[in-house]
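step=predict obj=Putative mitochondrial ribosomal protein l55 n=103
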Amino acid sequence: LLIKTMFIVRSLSSASAAITRIHRLKYLRHYPTKVILPDGSSITIRYHEPRQIIKLPLDISTLSEHEAKLRLERRRPKTKLKEQEEDLAHFDARKYLHLIKKK
């Protein structure tokens, strides 16, 4: 009798790391996200929330005094201009006649 032996051949390649699983107790969904570093360079990471870009803050202590002052001024809330109310007593309807279409 001829007995055939079966050999399982596993070929290893550079993609073989993709075969294994992530060793965690909980399998979470990760989304590809760009991280912008303070120096302006960017890297792609896996993040647990669906975001496109995460920008890391700049360390103000590394900036010059003038640049740090400008950045802090930009962070402050801008003052709102007070709206001037129009006087309805001086309303002239003839100013808006050119906007009305004739039938």
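step=describe
The mean pLDDT is 79.
step=end
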